[in-house]
Design the sequence.
């Protein structure tokens, strides 16, 4: 069985001249192409170059709002399937798997119906065609899935197999019911031009009860042929159908069926129905006459309907492994010289041959979207129907398909979150792919960035967490949103960056005299310890708070400790000492004598280091003067405070 | 990015930057003269480092640019300013390619020149983009046209890059060389030469590594080639670079002409190539690692219509204003 081969699709780009060299670049969800003036040799072309860049995007399906429901709901089903316990043996899980398969199919059907409605109601002919195409594709998908469910998942043995296949055919042949509705609603159903079509269709689909009811209408109109109709009615009612739940074995059923078959054959050979063309035709069908069946090509409409009907009336106890003989021959017989085998036919044939891999491979090639093959393969894998190929990929086919599908979802602004779950359930490559993809999710808003972060944090993707926080921090910093930048770098646990931002805060304070983003700094908590500079920032702000609350003694203690514990950078000491001035100038003594000694020590340390540093030729004389004045002021204040402190401490309260 | 016409190196070379706004529309936010000769390539650094670009040119320099966020008025008008942070002038010939190293290596970039020298620079302080130091200077003997870093951040792989040569003398085999960093010698040394590539190489690209043990490399030469490099297990005492088993995984001459560019998508599942036949082709592997062409983009010269999309497997969105992702276009200035 050969693989279906499909030529690569060609997309024409307007406004790029034919034969002109095209440049391209990958975008997150698309590819951009543009015309260049490049020529390998010879003079460059004159004239204006192409001034457009074209965005080419594959797979429009993702952006269809109706199909989005399909993706969302099937995501639900998928996740549910993954959580089915592994320890229970597969056999007892079969009903569960069949039920899940049916869930998927009902989702497809719902989507199809909605699309059909829109296709019919829209006035835009182009859209209508597009919707129509999508409906056809979904129809085909559901047809294939249903067959796979019957053959692979439900895996009915001989006997039940045919019954399930009959259901399958009936489900996908709405024509008969449409016609029946017309016929029954007419004044005289038996005279309707579709009447016999309906009867024959019923027989072809094995719906004998309904066929009998229809025939009864004709029988009353032709009293002369009453006996013939009675005979036919009898034959139809006696046809045995296998009952899987019953006590009859398959062999017993087979015997019964053969007896019935012989009886019908006898009446045919007896010419019992020869005077009535239609009844004779029905009789031939019941006997399984190939030529008679083939004559009904139009009513059968598909070769697989022909196949099931033929099996029903020739070999109802067909075994699964025998199916492909009949399938191939029916296909050949049904297709005349005019019609060509379509990809769908090849896929169905592969299914009848129980070649799961070929079904999946052909579906991947023929269908645009990975949705179908990914979910079907996953379900089949859970049924333990796929033997893991050891692929060069290091992964297996299921993972390959799921990753293909999920990667496609990632380009969508909201569906990407569904994609994450798919990656989670690909043990070999899922994580690596998720890491790559999640870094590329555009972090348009803080909210989205937080969403992405939570996903990474839940999965301990620490590198991605760090990277995303860093990107957001950088962005905030560039836009001068220091508070945001600080909180992102704390989240990233990026000490170096936190230091940088703290410096900026402190610089801002020096120039403006106030802090921005007070809330953030006040509530740093343990995050303060991330970097020394950050700790200082936090503590410095605490100092200001204490001062504001007039808790001067505590403020003073904190201020001193900032210098003595070396939390404050040397460059800031001058500012701190200047901050001490108002505390020194208070009427009440705040700094104790010891504390004052320490302050003096700090001042001396500071001034001596400034002295030893080469006098900056750049700093203007004015600045140096200001510095000098400050130092002198401080010395004065410190001395005065020291005096007062000594007196105070030396005084004994009497 | 593609080179401009070769005979026009006298003209100015502009670089344009486009940004996508919140409403999804694209806008050209900056255009400025980057070099005094044709600009060969432009590349973005990882957004972790801010908005940073590097460009290289026929004028023998490479430059690093940073975006400065302007006044809020500018932002509303959608303008941004780029300033040059540094010029790298070590090359004595045209600098043909510049690429930033993977971000886990810090802020590092590699340039390659027509005289066959690869230079690797590092900015030790990522907040100061004016300070770059030349860390490595590697002579490849053949004139270089393109360079590609291996993006793998796995600790199992030492830093690695591939260099392609456009030397047209077919007698010198091996137009692609692979260099690998050695922790002990702290130097890059040649690990492999792809002897089967004898024609001029125009572009080269490592595929993103999905945690695989082997590397995949795409090459644009007279056809499209994809190689697989499988590291052979080193004995613990062996010194020197890793030995590789080189396998050619795919070779396509569908362009029927010189192939100028190859580039991978994010997950390394699709390779795009462009050639002198005026087409962009897309290549994809199935799970059995068989590569096939899955799509062709070609200009048909038809006039631009207002509608969007053709109902085909590849759908197209075309705009009347120029659109782009966060990549840069090389353009000729209007006067040339």
Sequence:
């Amino acid at each position: 069985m050969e693989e279906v081969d499909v030529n690569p699709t060609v997309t024409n780009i307007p406004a790029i001249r034919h034969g002109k060299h095209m440049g391209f670049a990958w975008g997150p969800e698309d590819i951009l192409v543009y015309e260049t003036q490049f020529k390998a040799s010879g003079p460059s072309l004159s004239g204006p170059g192409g001034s457009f860049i074209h965005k080419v995007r594959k797979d429009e399906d993702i952006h269809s709002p109706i199909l989005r429901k399909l993706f969302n709901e099937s995501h639900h089903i998928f996740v549910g399937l993954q959580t089915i316990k592994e320890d229970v043996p597969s056999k007892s899980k079969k009903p569960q798997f069949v039920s899940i398969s049916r869930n998927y199919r009902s989702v497809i059907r719902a989507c199809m119906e909605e699309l059909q409605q829109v296709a019919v109601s829209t006035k835009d002919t182009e859209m209508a065609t597009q919707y129509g195409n999508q409906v056809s594709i979904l129809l085909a998908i559901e047809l294939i899935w249903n067959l796979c469910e019957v053959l692979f998942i439900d895996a009915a043995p001989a006997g039940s197999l045919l019954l399930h296949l009959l259901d399958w055919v009936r489900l996908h042949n709405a024509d008969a019911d449409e016609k029946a509705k017309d016929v029954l609603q007419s004044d005289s159903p038996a005279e309707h031009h579709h009447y016999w079509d309906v009867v024959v269709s019923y027989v072809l689909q094995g719906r004998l009860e309904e066929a009998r009811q229809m025939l009864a209408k004709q029988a009353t109109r032709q009293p002369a042929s009453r006996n013939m109709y009675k005979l036919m009615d009898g034959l139809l009612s006696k046809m045995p159908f296998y009952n899987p739940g019953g006590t009859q074995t398959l062999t017993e059923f087979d015997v019964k069926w053969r007896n019935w078959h012989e009886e019908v054959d006898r009446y045919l050979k007896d010419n019992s129905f020869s005077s009535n063309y239609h009844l004779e035709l029905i009789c031939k069908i019941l006997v399984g006459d190939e030529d008679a069946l083939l004559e009904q090509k139009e009513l059968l409409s598909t070769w697989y309907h022909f196949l099931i009907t033929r099996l029903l009336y020739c070999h109802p106890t067909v075994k699964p492994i025998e199916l492909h003989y009949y399938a191939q021959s029916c296909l050949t017989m049904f297709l005349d010289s005019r019609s060509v085998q379509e990809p769908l036919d090849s896929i169905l044939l592969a299914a009848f041959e129980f070649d799961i891999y070929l079904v999946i491979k052909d579906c991947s090639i023929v269908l645009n979207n990975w949705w179908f093959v990914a979910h079907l393969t996953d379900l089949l894998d859970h049924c333990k129907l796929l033997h893991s190929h050891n692929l060069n990929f290091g992964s297996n086919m299921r993972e390959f398909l799921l990753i293909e599908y999920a990667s496609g979802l990632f380009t969508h602004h909201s569906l990407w979150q569904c994609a994450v779950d798919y990656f989670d359930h690909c043990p070999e490559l899922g994580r690596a792919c998720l890491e790559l993809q999640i870094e590329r999710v555009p972090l348009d808003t803080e909210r989205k960035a937080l969403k992405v972060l939570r996903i990474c944090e839940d999965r301990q993707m620490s590198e991605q967490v760090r990277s995303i926080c860093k990107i957001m921090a950088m962005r905030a910093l560039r836009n001068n949103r220091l508070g945001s930048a600080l909180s992102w770098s704390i989240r990233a646990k990026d000490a170096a960056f936190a230091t940088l931002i703290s410096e900026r805060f402190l610089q801002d304070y020096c120039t403006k005299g106030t802090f921005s983003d007070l809330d953030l700094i006040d509530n740093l908590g343990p995050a303060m310890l991330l970097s020394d500079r950050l700790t200082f920032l936090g503590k410095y702000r605490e100092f200001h708070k204490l001062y504001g609350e007039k808790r001067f003694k505590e403020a003073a203690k904190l201020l001193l400790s900032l210098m003595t514990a070396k939390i404050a950078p040397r460059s800031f000491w001058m500012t701190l000492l200047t901050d001490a001035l108002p505390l020194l100038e208070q009427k009440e003594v705040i700094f104790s004598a010891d504390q004052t000694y320490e302050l003096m020590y700090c001042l001396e340390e500071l001034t001596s280091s400034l002295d030893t540093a080469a006098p900056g030729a750049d700093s203007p004389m004015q600045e140096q003067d200001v510095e000098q004045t400050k130092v002198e002021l401080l010395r004065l204040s410190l001395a005065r405070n020291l005096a007062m402190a000594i007196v105070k401490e030396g005084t004994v309260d009497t | 990015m593609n080179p401009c016409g070769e005979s026009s190196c006298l003209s100015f070379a502009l670089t344009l930057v486009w940004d996508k706004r919140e409403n999804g529309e694209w806008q050209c936010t900056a255009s400025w003269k980057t070099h005094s000769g044709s600009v060969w390539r432009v590349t973005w650094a990882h957004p972790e480092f801010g908005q940073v670009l590097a460009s290289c040119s026929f004028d023998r320099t490479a430059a690093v640019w940073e975006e400065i966020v302007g006044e809020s008025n500018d932002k509303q008008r959608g303008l941004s300013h780029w300033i040059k942070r540094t010029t790298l002038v070590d090359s004595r010939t045209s600098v043909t390619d510049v690429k930033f190293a993977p971000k886990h290596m810090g802020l590092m970039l590699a340039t390659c020149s027509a005289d066959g020298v690869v230079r690797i620079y590092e900015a030790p302080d990522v907040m100061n983009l004016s300070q770059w130091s030349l860390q490595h200077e590697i002579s490849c003997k053949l004139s270089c046209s393109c360079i590609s870093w291996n993006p793998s951040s796995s600790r199992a792989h030492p830093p690695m890059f591939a260099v392609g040569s456009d030397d047209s003398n077919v007698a010198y085999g091996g137009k692609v060389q692979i260099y690998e960093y050695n922790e002990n010698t702290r130097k890059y040394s040649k690990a492999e030469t792809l002897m089967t590539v004898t024609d001029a190489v125009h572009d080269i690209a490592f595929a993103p590594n999905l945690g695989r043990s082997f590397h995949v490399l795409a090459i644009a030469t007279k056809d499209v080639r994809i190689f697989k490099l499988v590291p052979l297990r080193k004995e613990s005492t062996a010194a020197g670079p890793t030995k590789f088993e080189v396998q050619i995984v795919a070779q396509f001459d569908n362009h029927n002409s010189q192939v100028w560019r190859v580039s991978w998508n994010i997950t390394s599942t699709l390779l795009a190539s462009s050639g002198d036949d005026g087409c962009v082709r897309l290549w994809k592997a199935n799970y059995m690692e068989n590569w096939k062409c899955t799509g062709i983009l070609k200009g048909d010269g038809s006039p631009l219509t207002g509608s969007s999309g053709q109902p085909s497997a590849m759908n197209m969105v075309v705009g009347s204003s120029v659109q782009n992702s966060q990549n840069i276009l090389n353009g000729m200035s209007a006067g040339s």
Summary: The radius of gyration of chain A is 42 Å. Residues 1-58 of chain A form one domain. The longest strand of chain A covers residues 53-58.
